[in-house]
Amino acid sequence: MSIWKKNTDLARLNATSENTLTAHLGILYTEVGDNSLTGTMPVDQRTVQPFGLLHGGASVALAETLGSLAANLAVPPSKVCVGLEVNANHIRGVKSGIVSGTATALHIGYTTQIWSIAINNERGQLVCTSRLTVAVINKPA
């Protein structure tokens, strides 16, 4: 049974990223499961730090992007989710290729949600694990 309460069409979701940090970093939404959202991000000149490794901030941007969108898809149209806290543990360096993140709900409540985001390299190895907490509020007028 799906947790989603809003439209999860991938083409529509990717179109919402135009002219945002998400688009600038090359993040694409690639799969919507019954209770998870997956996306990818290239490891290239936009996302590496000076030593040529995936920048931790880029990993956090991917994690927060996936978790925030997933949270907002899991609430009724009259509600939106806003970030309260994000943390990340960086496990393994990546020099090139594509990383993929999957956001999975740990808690979906009336006032808060908690999401776990696992980011893996192309070999399926864990690169970063992140947790996002959001507040559920009434949609602003």
Annotation keywords:
141 residues; 3 helices; 20% helix
Give the ordered list of helices and strands. HHEEHEEEE
In DSSP terms (H or I, runs of 4 or more residues), the helix count works out at: 3
The tally of beta strands, per DSSP, is: 6
Q: Biggest sheet: strands, sense, closure? A: 6 strands, antiparallel
| Secondary structure category | alpha+beta
- Span between N and C termini? 31 Å
Oligomer status = single chain
Radius of gyration from CA coordinates: 15 Å
Mean pLDDT: 97
Low-confidence region ranges: none
Strand order of the largest sheet: 1-2-4-5-6-3
Question: How would you portray this structure in words?
Answer:
There is one protein chain. This protein is of the alpha+beta class. It has helices at 10-15, 21-24, 56-73; strands at 28-32, 36-43, 79-90, 97-108, 112-120, 126-138. It has a six-stranded antiparallel β-sheet. The radius of gyration is 15 Å and the shape is globular.
